[in-house]
Amino acid sequence: MQETVEIPISSFGQFFREAGEDTVALPHCLDCGRHHWYPMERCPHCFSERLEWASVSGRATVYSVTTVRYAFTAATRGQTPYGIALVTFDDVPDVRMVCRTNASEKGSDVAIGDAVMVSVTTDATDPDTGMVSCTPLASDAESGEHGER
């Protein structure tokens, strides 16, 4: 039997450090067995402090989507429009996460109900920061998994 190593869940930095190629890791409670999002010191379901980072598939379904056309900060000037999606993970359906999508003047490249793959990239200059994004997967006609737009 493999022993589980408990990793402190205290910051978004740990989330980005846990990310790897094709890996999305979420806080997971060792007592109640549920995942959650955001990183926090205790499980929001049972209040246990026994938490670990656990990988999920990254496959998700778009729950909500919007296109941002106004740069709210100096860092996003020249990057508009960009899309934002709220997604629900297929293997952890009670967890939703916000991620960035591609967008054009017509809007985001994903729609509500679309199948997407969530990925996490770490900033090369600061391992405690990065970007969560999602890309469309094959449509229902191709994969038989999710509805069409």
What does it look like?
The chain has 149 residues and is mainly β. It contains two helices and nine strands; from the N terminus they run αβββββββββα. It has helices at 12-18, 140-143; strands at 24-29, 51-56, 59-68, 82-89, 96-101, 103-104, 107-108, 115-123, 126-136. The strands form three sheets. Strands 5-4-3-8-9 form a five-stranded antiparallel sheet. Strands 1-2 form a two-stranded antiparallel sheet. β4 and β5 form a beta hairpin. It starts with 11 loop residues before the first helix and ends in a 6-residue tail after the last helix. Residues 1-7 and 141-149 have low confidence and may be disordered.
What is the structure about, briefly put?
The chain is mainly beta and 149 residues long. 7% of the residues lie in helices and 40% in strands.
Shape: globular
In terms of per-residue confidence, which ranges show pLDDT below 50 for 5 or more consecutive residues? 1-7, 141-149
Summarize the biggest pleated sheet.
5 strands, antiparallel
Average pLDDT: 81
Radius of gyration from the alpha-carbon trace, in angstroms: 17 Å
- The helix/strand class is mainly beta
**H/I helix tally:** 2
Q: Termini distance?
A: 45 Å
Q: In sequence order, what are the helices and strands, one letter per element?
A: HEEEEEEEEEH
Strand order, sheet with most strands:
5-4-3-8-9
Number of strands: 9
- The proportion of residues in beta strands is 35-45%
- Percent of residues in helices comes to under 10%
Keywords:
about 150 residues; mainly beta; two-stranded antiparallel sheet; 2 helices; 9 strands; globular; disordered C terminus
